[in-house]
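Below is how a single chain appears once it has passed through the pipeline. First comes the sequence as given, then the structure the pipeline wrote out for it. We keep one example in the README because the format questions we get most often are answered faster by looking than by reading.
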Amino acid sequence: MVLIGRDFPISTAYEAQYYPVVIFANDQYYVFWEDYRLYYSDKSIYAARVTTDGTVIDPDGKLILSDRTVIADIAFDGVNFLVAIQDSC
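Resulting structure:
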């Protein structure tokens, strides 16, 4: 399935965002990424929901975790999300 035929921003927050991971569940896309907008935490994990027509429900995302972590993978069991992370040690 093609989401839409053009690129579009999920987050336009200041500082850098890296390594997006996308999963499709509940008829929408969930995008998770590493984010550097919080100076006090080095990097954080943010997430946003995106509809199949490209509407970003959570512009600039929602903070999921602020603890110098790296996203490893994401899974969905039909009810719950599991976000596997690797910490910075």
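The first strand starts at residue 17 and ends at 25.

See the next section for the split statistics.
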